[in-house]
C-alpha cells in the first residue's frame, strides 16, 4: 500500500537556527521559509537525494504543533509521510483493519497541495503517520 517516504517532519523551536544547521553544518539544500496559515505552520524544506525533511515551526496562536513544542522544547520528530496512489482506498483499507484516522477522516490539502490524512500514532508504533496521495 505505502510507497516512497515523502518526508520526515521535525518541529523546531527556531527556524533560522534549524535552517542554518541543515544548510551550513550538514551541507543540505534548504528552501526559504514558507508560511502556511491554513496549517498553522511555517515550513523550511530540506531537499535530500531520496526524500525531504520538513522543518516546522508554529504559526499563529492555535497551531497544531504548539503543544508539541511545549512538551519538546528542543524540538523533535513529529511525523513521517508515506506516499500512496489512492488515499481513499488506503484509508478504507486501514479503517477496515482497525486503524484510526485523525480529524474528520476526510483528506485535506497538505503542504504540497496534495490530499493528505493522518493516522493515530497509537496504531503505528507510537509514530504519527501522514499519508499523501501522489
Ligand atoms: Co507532513
Explain this structure.
The chain has 134 residues and is an alpha+beta fold. The chain has a single domain (5-133), classed as 2,3-Dihydroxybiphenyl 1,2-Dioxygenase, domain 1, CATH 3.10.180.10. 20% of the residues lie in helices and 36% in strands. It contains 3 helices and 9 strands; from the N terminus they run βαββββαβαβββ. The protein has helices at residues 15-25, 66-71, 87-96, and strands at residues 5-11, 29-30, 34-36, 41-47, 52-58, 76-84, 108-109, 115-119, 128-133. Strands 1, 2, 3, 4, 5, 6, 7, 8 and 9 form a 9-stranded mixed β-sheet that branches. A hairpin with a 5-residue loop joins strand 7 and strand 8. It starts with a strand and ends with a strand. 25% of the residues are buried. The model has no long low-confidence stretch (mean pLDDT 95). Bound molecules: cobalt (II) ion. Cobalt (II) ion is lined by residues 7, 9, 54, 79, 81, 111, 130.
In short:
The chain has 134 residues and is an alpha+beta fold. The protein is built from 3 helices and 9 strands; from the N terminus they run βαββββαβαβββ. A hairpin with a 4-residue loop joins strand 4 and strand 5.
- Provide the CATH top-level class: Alpha Beta
Query: Bound small molecules, which ones?
Result: cobalt (II) ion
- Helix count, per DSSP? 3
| Rg result | 15 Å
Q: What's the overall geometry?
A: globular
Q: Mind summarizing the main beta sheet?
A: 9 strands, mixed
Spans of at least 5 consecutive residues whose pLDDT stays below 50 are none
Amino acid at each position: 500500500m505505502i510507497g516512497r517516504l515523502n518526508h520526515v517532519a521535525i518541529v523546531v523551536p527556531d527556524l533560522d537556527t534549524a535552517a542554518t544547521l541543515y544548510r551550513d553544518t550538514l551541507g543540505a539544500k534548504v528552501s526559504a521559509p514558507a508560511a502556511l496559515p491554513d496549517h498553522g505552520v511555517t515550513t523550511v524544506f530540506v531537499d535530500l537525494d531520496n526524500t525531504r525533511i520538513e522543518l516546522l515551526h508554529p504559526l499563529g496562536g492555535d497551531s497544531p504543533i504548539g503543544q508539541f513544542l511545549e512538551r519538546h522544547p528542543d524540538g523533535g520528530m513529529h511525523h513521517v509521510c508515506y506516499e500512496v496512489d489512492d488515499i481513499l482506498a488506503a484509508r478504507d483499507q486501514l479503517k477496515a483493519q482497525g486503524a484510526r484516522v485523525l480529524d474528520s477522516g476526510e483528506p485535506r490539502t497538505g503542504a504540497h497541495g496534495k490530499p493528505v490524512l493522518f493516522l493515530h500514532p497509537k496504531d503505528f508504533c507510537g509514530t504519527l503517520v501522514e499519508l499523501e496521495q501522489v
